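Quick illustration, no need to memorize.
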Amino acid sequence: MNNLHNINIERAVLSSFFFNPNIFLLNLHKLSADDFYLPAHRYIYETMVELEKAEKPIDEEFIAMELQKQNRWDENAMLEITSTNPLPNLDGYIEELRDKSQRRETVEMMSEVKNKLGASEEVYDILGFMSKTINEIADKSISKKSKNIKKIVDEFEKEFKEAREYKDYVGYKSGIGSLDNIVGAFSPGDLVVVAARPSMGKTSFATTITNYADKNGDGVLFDSLEMSDTQIIRRLHAQRADESLSDIKRGLMKNPARFAKSLKELRYSKNIIIHDESYISIHQLVAKASIVFRKNPHVKYWIIDHLRYIKKDGKNIPQEVSEITKLIKKTAKEYGVAVFLLSQLNRANETQQNKRPLLSNIRESGAVEEDAEIVLALHRESYYNRNDPSIPEQPINPAEIIVLKNRDGRSGCARCFFDGPHTCFTDVPVQVYEYEGKVLNMGGVI
């Protein structure tokens, strides 16, 4: 029966996995070995899965070694796979494989029912077997496509009860009270775009959230596409140890005990995962992130710093950005994380009398505005006076986190403060500390 299998599609899907391991990782959760009809294909796919779990290369040499140990190696099958052209988009083909797999399971069930009838088993036992098997086959399809309405309502009720119990929003917060008062909480699957001009504090905003999440026991994947992992740790440490970043760079500290405590907390933290590979494609970025999310279900925040450093072909930038944001959002929704995508504002707002950014100031704003649940813009008036020698920028300055878009809530302006020496955003209106030999507060020297 030709409608029960398609060997060519199986070869093409495995070829796509073989030539691009990132594509394999993106689709790993969608297939099982039983979805392949040909035994050689099942063995190869099973071996790919085992190699991924063992963090070994998924290539012909390792697959051959593993299958030879089990006396399952089929060189001709591998040759046919590697001779097949990879597919540009697998979604439809994977759906076809799963459909044929479910058809085969249905035929096997019918055959088993026929045998049971011939063996004169009780009719109720046979009906029970049929019901159980049909539900198992259906569940495999439904679980990949949709949720039962009862389950959706149960999840909503659970969320409502939690909000009622704690008298607060349910979700993931930023730790910046003025912002959380407007947004409430970021939800699993949210795409949150954080936009600002260069040096306005995008990475500082991201590290502020990272430290907050870590202290609350939530995991963070920090994809730093611009700065090195050491630079990110330095900033996290400056905030936690209450040391200025410039002092740390010079090997200075003012509180050795707190300094050591911060280092210990960071060293043994199980909540912070940092990647710092630059100029990678969106498929590589998502594949690496998917591995982290599968192995670390406690990760609730995904920070990408930033959009500009995701590799693009340059043929149609708006379209490429749209594909990037859609794939990031799809991945965040799939794994239940809130993703913070840092982006850059164009120069248009600098020519305005009121320099507060607008949605239209975001580069490639069309795609970003369409896909994001929340769009935040960072703004500091002091930033625009930094080149005026008569108005020196103070260590701590008023800042605004402008909620330009909030799909499930209100927009507005969260007023807070940017703490330059500690590279963080804070709600504290006056923070007194010693900096370069002087006692300072928000407004300057006391």
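The longest strand covers residues 396-406.
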